Amino acid sequence: MTASWILVCVLMAATQVPATLDRILVVVNGDMITLSDVRAVRVLKLLPADAGDDEVVQALIDRRLVLAEMRRFQVPDPAPEAVAARRSQWMAAHLGEDPARLFMMAGVRADFVDRWIADEFRREVYLQQRFAALDADRREAAIRLWIESLRLRAVIVPRRQEFPATTPAPAAGPSRR
Fold this sequence. Notes:
Triger factor/SurA peptide-binding fold, 3-stranded antiparallel sheet, 3 strands
């Protein structure tokens, strides 16, 4: 009887199919963008809803590049009232949805949105200062060209490394040295 239970347990362990918990999609200057990053942005609707996965990944790459560039300069933190007001706008856009449920589905803490909003404020201030001399049409074109130049200077490595929920057992047998 005990031998049959052991056999059942061994067979169950051997036939377990690994499930992907997360996946590294791209590494940008040593900073990883993962599948869970894309999921969080989609669930929390922080980018336009009609954006495809590739567009979301590209937007996250561009965002990381701009934020890294901003770190070289002293961009002031936004006023807490401004972050709270924008968070209220974000909440109003999710009318009828439970924020705690959204954060759980996205796999992030509640302060994730506040950090995102604060970074967006800093990004807006930085871009306004950097391209202040240009009118609106030329400004948008200049920002696109500048971000393209950031991409060209960056080390961007596409990855497909998965983090399985279960790790298959190593094959039994003699070790080779």
